[in-house]
Design a protein that fits this description.
single chain, alpha+beta, two-stranded antiparallel ribbon, 1 helix, binds zinc ion, C2H2-type domain-containing protein
Length: 57
């Protein structure tokens, strides 16, 4: 069963919507959004692609 762990506390929820509601109520400062990019990161036009963990044969 998938359990949604609250990133801000130890509580866990079965439903994503419950976690979302909990965060809004108990962690008003927390936002379910992607981290805001630092302005410095914008200077890099293309992030380096992930390196293959193992060589393809
Ligand atoms: Zn929480």
């Amino acid at each position: 069963m998938t359990v949604h762990q609250c990133p801000k506390c130890v509580l866990r929820f079965e439903r994503k919507t419950e976690l979302d509601y909990h965060c809004r109520e108990d962690h008003p400062d927390f936002r379910h959004e992607y981290p805001v990019r630092h302005p410095a990161a914008a200077d890099q036009p293309h992030p380096a692609p992930p390196t293959p963990s193992s060589p393809a044969k």
